[in-house]
Write a structure and sequence with these properties.
This protein has four helices and 38 strands. The chain has about 625 residues and is mostly beta strands. It has a single domain, classed as TonB-dependent receptor, beta-barrel domain (Maltoporin, Chain A). The chain is globular and about 75 Å long. The N terminus is likely disordered.
Amino acid sequence: MLFQDLPPPPPEDDQAYEEVAPIDDRAPDEHILVTAARTPRLRTRASDAATVIAAERIERAAPARLLPLLRRVPAAALAEAGPAGSQAQLRLRGAEANHSLLFIDGIKANDPAAANEARFELLSTGLADSIEVLRGPQSALWGPEALGGVVALRSARPSTRAPEWRLFTETGRYGFGRLAADLASGDERASLRLSAGAQRAEGFDALGGDGDKDGYSLLNGRLAARLALAPATHVETAAFGILGKSEFDGLDPATFTRADTADETRHRLGAVRLGLVHAPGDWRLRAGGSLLASSNRNALDAAERNRTAAERLSLDAQATRRWGGGPLVHQFTVAIEHETERFRADDRDFGGATRQSAERDRSSLIAEWRGDHEVFALDLALRRDLFGQFADTSSLSAGALVRLDDRWSLRANYGEGIAQPNFYELFGFFPENFRGNPDLAPERSRGGDVGIAYDDGRFSAALTLFEQRLEDEIVSVFDPATFTTGAANREGDSRRRGAEVEGRARLSPGLGLGASYAYVDAGEELAPGGLLLRETRRPEHQAAIWLDGAAEGWSWSVALNYTGAREDLDFDRFPAARVRLGDHVLADARLARAIGRGIEVSVRGANLFDTAYQDVIGYATAGRSLFVGLALSR
């Protein structure tokens, strides 16, 4: 049900401190935040601004990719450069696109071969049973790139020993088709969840004309498994793989303006993680490692032009100790991490003249303390990052939650974040008109939020006010004498501030209503004289409202998403001109009906108002689309 993503009613005092147990204790996923602390945290005891999109909401909306669901998250600005499969960037609270840290079943999934951005355009619905979005700087807990916040895709642990499976197929406008399969089985000793899917679309002309169609194809799979070796010891593994092909319109080689070209990119992104957990008594020990590999190949008229590839090896270990009793319980965690990234770039246009290979490493020490009392919860985290290429840095986060009564609570947070320069900014990229700067310093962010929340079990609402400042922002610098571009740290601060509102109501046992709104002021101080210029592709106002439920064999989901006006840069002009993109409303809906045991038919609609809009200047988006689906399950 939709309202399983609501925070549960405040637990009894004795239960409030059982959250130290691992999330595999079968507490509902949506009652727990996996990114609010180094160990799982009950939502009722967390001070962070977080949104959880529960499994039932995903299943009832059932979009082909996760982007429509992320549009419902307050202060989450999405920009997709054309048809499905084109580059999609998420900006949390006005931060940059590479300032959101993505986890897939505990694996850091940002792509080091693509400016360390999270590849949101490649995320199909089959990669997550639930989604968690934590807003605000989180580097003290999770390291670089977590300046704007963290997005975590999670697999649910199966609750039945008998294997459960589901097959789903859907087809619709723009030559779209998809096929997905899921298998799950588990008990107290072992569990397995396996998902795989394929989708493709012929697409439409990315420039909105009658040129060639720009489509995409996407293959994905994930695995999450757990095996108990002893009552207090288990091993766990997770893996995911993504293969994608995206067709797009690039630049005219003579004028360097947008043109109807036959460009395409082939993406490969995959990772595996293995971990060991030992939890005797009040101790919880964890150690593990993951390996991620990615590659991106760009071609024009089927002839390869350039490619990038990268690997990331991550190792970690942590120990948690819980003590105390009565009204106050303490928990202390220490952790160590090590990460090595390797990057390679090559080209065909210049005969390998821009070929490069680079490597960097980072080690981190983390300490976290949490205190839980009957009427308040406190947390404090400190990280020390030891960089191989930059000066070492420290990050701090602190939070507090105070329960005024069994319905009202106040909370406050302060956090710091850092982001390493990506390989392009450090070493340049092809063609050789962008020169790297090995002297760059990491970007740093600091900020906080305060909020008030209400929850009576049937209705919940939260208001959050936030402010963040970005220091040493990395910007592009153009040299008109040599017609080359480079990267530099900008002097001064960039500020972001705003307000977020979320509310949900349980209208009946099978019907729920939810809404969100965000105001984001993402201005940038450009000069000591006080010139204030808004950041691009960040709407000042965003809102969403959705209704979903299930009853007597029917299930449904309806959503309206509002994106306010925002600014963009038109690079078809020189110098690039600042333009304004108008506001728009997108309407999505899905209706499903069970027609027999294990058989379900569905109809889904996207952009039902046939709104003409642009996320990125010059690139068209999909019009009204209808899809029909069939699901078989046991």
